[in-house]
Amino acid sequence: MLGTDGRGVPRPALWLRLRPPSRRARAAAAARAGAAACVLAIGGAAITGCDQPASAAPAIQVGTASIPQPAVGGTTDAFVVILNKGPADRLISARTSDGGRVTFRGPASGGSAAMRTVPAIAIPAATTVRLVPDGFHLLITGARPMRGGTSITLTLVFARAGSISVEAQITNPQSGGSSYFRY
Q: What is the C-alpha separation between 91 and 156, in angstroms, rounded?
Protein backbone atom coordinates (compact mmCIF):
# COMPACT_ATOMS: atom_id res chain seq x y z
CA MET A 1 0.00 0.00 0.00
CA LEU A 2 1.00 3.55 -0.40
CA GLY A 3 1.61 5.95 2.44
CA THR A 4 2.35 9.66 2.51
CA ASP A 5 5.48 11.44 3.59
CA GLY A 6 3.82 14.15 5.70
CA ARG A 7 3.50 16.59 2.82
CA GLY A 8 0.83 14.52 1.09
CA VAL A 9 3.25 12.98 -1.45
CA PRO A 10 2.58 9.29 -1.85
CA ARG A 11 5.39 6.98 -0.77
CA PRO A 12 5.73 3.37 -2.03
CA ALA A 13 5.46 0.61 0.47
CA LEU A 14 8.68 -1.02 1.56
CA TRP A 15 8.03 -4.16 -0.46
CA LEU A 16 7.81 -2.06 -3.67
CA ARG A 17 11.23 -0.45 -3.25
CA LEU A 18 13.78 -1.57 -5.84
CA ARG A 19 16.75 -3.66 -4.87
CA PRO A 20 19.70 -4.59 -7.06
CA PRO A 21 19.11 -7.97 -8.71
CA SER A 22 20.81 -11.00 -7.23
CA ARG A 23 23.44 -13.01 -9.09
CA ARG A 24 20.90 -15.70 -9.78
CA ALA A 25 18.49 -13.18 -11.28
CA ARG A 26 21.24 -11.65 -13.44
CA ALA A 27 22.29 -15.13 -14.67
CA ALA A 28 18.68 -16.02 -15.50
CA ALA A 29 18.23 -12.75 -17.42
CA ALA A 30 21.45 -13.37 -19.37
CA ALA A 31 20.31 -16.92 -20.23
CA ARG A 32 16.93 -15.61 -21.47
CA ALA A 33 18.67 -12.97 -23.59
CA GLY A 34 21.02 -15.58 -25.07
CA ALA A 35 18.13 -17.91 -25.86
CA ALA A 36 16.23 -15.05 -27.51
CA ALA A 37 19.28 -14.21 -29.64
CA CYS A 38 19.56 -17.85 -30.76
CA VAL A 39 15.88 -17.97 -31.68
CA LEU A 40 16.23 -14.79 -33.72
CA ALA A 41 19.37 -16.07 -35.48
CA ILE A 42 17.78 -19.42 -36.36
CA GLY A 43 14.56 -17.75 -37.44
CA GLY A 44 16.48 -15.31 -39.62
CA ALA A 45 18.41 -18.13 -41.24
CA ALA A 46 15.18 -20.01 -41.95
CA ILE A 47 13.50 -16.96 -43.44
CA THR A 48 16.43 -16.27 -45.77
CA GLY A 49 15.75 -19.49 -47.69
CA CYS A 50 12.00 -18.89 -47.93
CA ASP A 51 12.23 -17.22 -51.32
CA GLN A 52 13.80 -20.34 -52.85
CA PRO A 53 11.61 -23.08 -54.35
CA ALA A 54 11.43 -26.14 -52.11
CA SER A 55 12.66 -28.48 -54.82
CA ALA A 56 14.88 -26.26 -56.94
CA ALA A 57 16.21 -28.26 -59.90
CA PRO A 58 19.84 -27.72 -60.88
CA ALA A 59 20.37 -24.95 -63.41
CA ILE A 60 22.27 -27.29 -65.77
CA GLN A 61 20.82 -30.64 -66.74
CA VAL A 62 22.35 -33.13 -69.16
CA GLY A 63 19.96 -35.02 -71.42
CA THR A 64 21.04 -37.81 -73.70
CA ALA A 65 24.60 -38.58 -74.70
CA SER A 66 25.72 -40.68 -77.64
CA ILE A 67 29.13 -41.90 -78.82
CA PRO A 68 29.66 -43.58 -82.19
CA GLN A 69 31.72 -46.75 -81.85
CA PRO A 70 35.30 -45.93 -82.86
CA ALA A 71 36.28 -47.48 -86.18
CA VAL A 72 40.02 -47.58 -85.58
CA GLY A 73 42.50 -46.28 -83.04
CA GLY A 74 40.16 -45.36 -80.20
CA THR A 75 39.30 -41.90 -81.55
CA THR A 76 35.63 -40.95 -81.61
CA ASP A 77 33.25 -38.07 -80.98
CA ALA A 78 30.65 -37.60 -78.25
CA PHE A 79 27.36 -35.80 -78.71
CA VAL A 80 25.39 -34.47 -75.76
CA VAL A 81 22.25 -32.42 -75.07
CA ILE A 82 22.66 -29.80 -72.33
CA LEU A 83 19.68 -27.91 -70.89
CA ASN A 84 20.47 -24.67 -69.06
CA LYS A 85 17.62 -23.25 -66.96
CA GLY A 86 19.85 -20.72 -65.19
CA PRO A 87 22.48 -18.10 -65.94
CA ALA A 88 25.11 -18.48 -68.63
CA ASP A 89 27.80 -21.07 -67.95
CA ARG A 90 30.75 -22.69 -69.74
CA LEU A 91 31.69 -26.33 -70.28
CA ILE A 92 35.36 -26.23 -69.26
CA SER A 93 36.44 -29.90 -69.21
CA ALA A 94 35.23 -33.47 -69.59
CA ARG A 95 36.41 -37.01 -68.88
CA THR A 96 35.23 -40.56 -69.57
CA SER A 97 35.04 -43.70 -67.48
CA ASP A 98 37.06 -45.43 -70.23
CA GLY A 99 40.05 -43.12 -69.84
CA GLY A 100 41.61 -41.27 -72.71
CA ARG A 101 41.59 -37.56 -73.36
CA VAL A 102 38.55 -35.40 -74.09
CA THR A 103 38.94 -32.16 -76.05
CA PHE A 104 36.33 -29.71 -77.30
CA ARG A 105 35.88 -29.21 -81.02
CA GLY A 106 33.98 -26.51 -82.85
CA PRO A 107 33.52 -25.16 -86.36
CA ALA A 108 36.45 -23.22 -87.79
CA SER A 109 35.71 -19.65 -88.78
CA GLY A 110 34.70 -18.80 -92.32
CA GLY A 111 31.82 -21.26 -92.63
CA SER A 112 33.99 -24.20 -93.72
CA ALA A 113 33.33 -27.77 -92.56
CA ALA A 114 36.74 -27.85 -90.84
CA MET A 115 36.84 -28.22 -87.07
CA ARG A 116 39.22 -26.65 -84.56
CA THR A 117 40.00 -27.32 -80.90
CA VAL A 118 38.39 -24.82 -78.53
CA PRO A 119 39.22 -24.26 -74.83
CA ALA A 120 35.60 -24.22 -73.62
CA ILE A 121 32.03 -24.36 -74.91
CA ALA A 122 29.67 -21.51 -74.00
CA ILE A 123 26.31 -22.52 -72.56
CA PRO A 124 24.03 -19.46 -72.88
CA ALA A 125 21.42 -18.71 -70.21
CA ALA A 126 18.00 -20.39 -70.51
CA THR A 127 18.79 -22.47 -73.62
CA THR A 128 19.25 -26.01 -74.82
CA VAL A 129 22.65 -26.66 -76.39
CA ARG A 130 23.12 -29.69 -78.62
CA LEU A 131 26.69 -30.89 -79.16
CA VAL A 132 26.38 -32.31 -82.69
CA PRO A 133 28.71 -33.60 -85.46
CA ASP A 134 28.72 -30.40 -87.54
CA GLY A 135 28.89 -28.04 -84.52
CA PHE A 136 30.48 -28.05 -81.11
CA HIS A 137 31.13 -31.56 -79.77
CA LEU A 138 33.56 -33.65 -77.72
CA LEU A 139 36.53 -35.50 -79.25
CA ILE A 140 37.67 -38.59 -77.32
CA THR A 141 41.17 -39.96 -78.02
CA GLY A 142 43.17 -42.78 -76.42
CA ALA A 143 40.25 -44.39 -74.59
CA ARG A 144 39.90 -48.13 -74.04
CA PRO A 145 38.00 -50.06 -76.73
CA MET A 146 34.28 -49.27 -76.92
CA ARG A 147 31.69 -51.70 -78.30
CA GLY A 148 28.29 -50.80 -79.72
CA GLY A 149 25.37 -51.48 -77.41
CA THR A 150 27.34 -50.67 -74.26
CA SER A 151 27.66 -47.43 -72.36
CA ILE A 152 30.29 -45.37 -70.56
CA THR A 153 30.07 -42.46 -68.16
CA LEU A 154 30.88 -38.97 -69.37
CA THR A 155 31.60 -36.40 -66.66
CA LEU A 156 31.15 -32.82 -67.82
CA VAL A 157 32.66 -30.01 -65.75
CA PHE A 158 31.01 -26.58 -65.89
CA ALA A 159 32.47 -23.31 -64.61
CA ARG A 160 29.42 -22.57 -62.41
CA ALA A 161 27.43 -25.81 -62.14
CA GLY A 162 30.42 -28.03 -61.35
CA SER A 163 30.63 -31.70 -62.39
CA ILE A 164 27.67 -33.54 -63.90
CA SER A 165 27.87 -37.19 -65.02
CA VAL A 166 25.75 -38.79 -67.71
CA GLU A 167 25.58 -42.28 -69.19
CA ALA A 168 26.59 -42.21 -72.86
CA GLN A 169 25.36 -44.94 -75.19
CA ILE A 170 27.94 -46.40 -77.59
CA THR A 171 26.23 -46.73 -80.95
CA ASN A 172 27.35 -48.79 -83.93
CA PRO A 173 26.40 -47.09 -87.21
CA GLN A 174 27.46 -50.28 -89.12
CA SER A 175 24.73 -52.31 -87.43
CA GLY A 176 22.04 -49.68 -87.64
CA GLY A 177 22.60 -48.05 -84.24
CA SER A 178 22.40 -44.33 -84.35
CA SER A 179 22.48 -41.46 -81.96
CA TYR A 180 19.31 -40.00 -80.55
CA PHE A 181 18.66 -36.83 -78.66
CA ARG A 182 15.98 -36.09 -76.10
CA TYR A 183 15.07 -32.84 -74.37
A: 7
Q: Tell me, which fold does domain 60-175 have in CATH?
A: Immunoglobulin-like (2.60.40)
Q: pLDDT tens digit string along 56-94? A: 668 999 999 999 988 776 789 999 999 999 999 999 999
- Burial group, residue 154, by CB count within 10 angstroms (0-12, 13-18, 19+): buried
pLDDT of residue 1 exceeding 90: no
Q: Where are the domains of the chain?
A: 3-51, 60-175
- The residues, ordered by sequence, that sit 6+ positions from 116 with a Cβ below 8 Å of its Cβ are 105, 106, 107, 108
Pairing of strands 60-68, 162-171: parallel
Contact residues for 63 (Cβ-Cβ < 8 A; gap 6+): 80, 81, 82, 83, 166, 181, 182, 183
Alpha carbon distance 27, 47 (integer Å): 30
How far apart (Å, rounded) are the C-alpha atoms in residues 23 and 45?
A: 33
Q: Are 118 and 104 in contact (CB under 8 A)?
A: yes
Amino acid making up residue 113 = A
> pLDDT above 90 covers what percent of the chain?
45
Task: Tell if the pTM clears 0.70, that is, is over it.
Answer: no
